[in-house]
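Subject: complex prediction, re-run

Hi both,

The earlier run crashed halfway through, so I resubmitted it with identical inputs.
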Amino acid sequence: MLQKKICMLGGFSVGKTTLVKRYVESVFSETYLTTVGVKIDKKVVNLPDRTVNLILWDVAGEDDVATIRMSYLRGMAGYVVVADGTRPATLDVALSLRERVEAEHGHIPFTLLVNKHDLLEQWAISDAELRSLTDEGWSVRTSSARTGEGVEDAFTDLANRTTR
Amino acid sequence: MTALPVSVADSLHASIHRQRELAYLQIDTELRLVGAGGHLEYYGLEGLEIGASACEQVFFLEGLLPPTQSPSFVRSLEIVADRAADLQFYLDGDHIWVVLLDVTAERDESRRMQQRAYDMTLLREKEALLNRRLESANAALRAAQGELERSRLELESAHSRLQADLAEAAHYVRSLLPAPLSEPFRADWRFVPSAALGGDALGYHWIDSEHFALYLLDVCGHGVGPSLMSVAVLHMLRTRSLRGIDFRNPAQVLSSLNDAYQMQSASDLYFTLWYGVYQPRERTLKYGCAGHPPALLVSADGSAVEHLKLAGVPIGLVDGVKYASATVSVPAQSRLYILSDGTFEVQKPDGAMLAFDELVEFVRCPPRADSDLDDWLQHLVQLRGGSLDDDFSIVRFGF
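This time it finished cleanly. Structure:
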């Protein structure tokens, strides 16, 4: 079966692990448990013309001290860069990460997922800001690991693009 | 670097084996699994098929083979059941060795520390966010407070202008009032407009050498409108500008005013009026009353107080009303009080209204005859504990 390595990148506590958990197990946990190193999961995706085994690398979040080990990203076919819509600074981290990945690995299919869209009252990233990224050709989506909004579609779309 | 003696290296190897779960995979250049050993089941790697694709069986190897350098490492991989391992890659001739070394304990310790640090950072972020929101709310409150202050100042300014206008209007009304008389009989009055300016006005004048008109009116409501109306009526009475009317006849005067000032055409204003005509030679007083409090005719010794009142609605309320007149004799040395409701409709400290009879008893035998008007006014002010709510208007004639 076709296998594709997908990495989850982003600042800490943006919801990478819960997004994978929602996608793979269809569950959501309120408890925040930080990821150290990388957590591996897999999910079989049935695309219209093929079945793909997505190997999901949930890489520990980046912060002021710890930067992501680029060695984790070796061999990836695509990546999801995640930001927290209630914390604008995490979008800056996401943009920076994407830039570094592009510089190190060249152009690889990716999706920017702006997560926690269920917390609309605390939402702090403007539509205009996201629209400007879309205008640059980015795949930008909002999601909620809590409700599942946008999660399945984002991974399916990315899986499609990695197999073209 | 000096190589460790074989015995030491073997001991270290054995120690690591005892302390950590270790597994290994041997892979050929075709990326097929050619060997595996150690605690494979610890990492969920039992049942591997020798000779088959390594990546298809060991999914986390996807993208990592062949290694670009030897040795190379991928740290802290959580592969199964919350167990973490360091992956080590070695190239040995035609084979790739992949070693999994358990680092769950180290990972857990790192996680505890990192969790505390992140929780603290998140807390600080939340605190900063809350602070920003509080500052924003504070700024909005300050802006609203500033706006309120500006509105208050504008209101104060408008209020001051209004008060000045009302004071000016009251001053103008007062300027229209007649001077006190001492001959051939005495006349004196007190006119104290309320803060909101009512619609009281009073006057007296000779109609001819035999007839002396005396009157007091009270337009409903407070403010400039009623005040203007009281001035207009006062002017009409003084200049006798109602055509074809005998101003010596109170009934005619009241009826004509009622025709002229119907409230539908007078901004819904109406007024009460007490109007009398005194004939000194006959010592008679002919009077009419349009919804006004009675005038009080007090005998010289105060033994008799006559209420001079006739039935009649206030002027302007009902079109076509005809008013009556009555005539009384005016005894020598008697006093006549014409007054507005503001001279007695006053709330006492206990909440009860002052009774009209209290005013009657006061005028019957005032303690100080010459200063009775001031004394009564002072009495009411004391009762109220300050300025009066309504105009205070009273005229006293001494015949």
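Chain A has a mean pLDDT of 92.

- K.
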